[in-house]
Amino acid sequence: MDDVSFNQDFIEFLGNATSPFHAVKVMAQQLTAAGFVQLNDIEAWPGVAGRYFSIRNDSSLVAFVHGTEAGPLEGMRMIGAHTDSPCLMVKPKPEKHHKSYQQLVVEVYGGALLNPWFDRDLSLAGRVSFTDDSGTLRKQLVDFKRPLAVIPSLAIHLDREANSSRSINAQTDILPLLGCGDEIDFRALLATELAAAMQRENLDVSVKAVLDYELGFYDVQPAALLGLDNELLAGARLDNLLSCYAGLRGLLASDGRHSSLLICTDHEEVGSQSAAGASGPLLLSVLQRLAATATDYAMLVERSFMISADNAHAVHPNFSARHDDNHGPLLNAGPVIKSNANQRYATNSETAALFRQLCASVDVPVQSFTVRNDMGCGSTIGPITATAIGVRTLDVGVPQLAMHSPRELTGSKDPCRLAQVLSAYVNWGEALAAAPAAG
Question: 3-class DSSP state for residue 62?
């Protein structure tokens, strides 16, 4: 696995994974191509060695390898990430016609950086529910792909304080502009796009009426390598599709001997409190299906390990004082172990030690991050999973800049390095039981 080909594949993945729904669709396609079998949640699952995956709400995915030498009860090597990213979601009644301009009313999803959304070519992607001519309720993923809208900045001449004290009102200042002219019917617009999508996919499905949707704007500028020596990678949704993709590549590299699992859940950016989020029952239900009894389940959890992968804050060259002097991760210096004594991350000394050992086994450098004592600390799905399941958990991530911007930045070497470590993890020859106590 080399970083050049990895980055090429990752950039292609980002271009197609324009919403959590599309991210899961692309991952499912790659899993199917690699021989994984999709399971039906309302049917019994096979209890034999093999490669399987399951989808929840079209936006969360669990894929696992039932090992040939070590089944799930011997311990699962688990990887967790999330499919969602901060964005601007279209509201249910979005049409706004003002001064002859056609606009859409949006809702901010997650902790988005709002300033970078101005003056970007924006498109729409997500899931749409509709009825066909027979009255049957259907659903379909939609991605307009082409630029549809823009949020134009206010000229400096009309806001002389823009560079010193301007704040953004999320209700009034970030309405995307679609064009000029008469009022639009957004659902009719969606119906036209749905019909075109059906035709492109050779689906003989009619579209009678659009009933509802979950659609988010995204920047159409593709991800790209940049820097004097292509040492940087810029793109949308790096947080946290980078971890999803690295985890996917890690699982696909499994030799099948040991049991391993990848879970990519939705709604992390808003607290994970949903049926498809990390606080929901998805992982618990999967593990309980793999363990026939309560005793089996308890043994499975005690013998398992979770690596929660979510990007880390790299030192910003213009704002280096925002980091603890001894814990400022650098781009292209390896994945980061994230620690917090107040349990905002689930890492402890034992789980961190295993990750350091894994990194050393594949000659990958590793870094450490803790937040400054006088700043608040974010969190991840790690503590949520550790609390809900009781599994030993580690929080790691690739360092990045511009987190929660519509265009983020990371080093071009670290994504592949994380995938290499995760590949070593799922194929690790030793059991993942706790280290023995010193004599």
Answer: strand
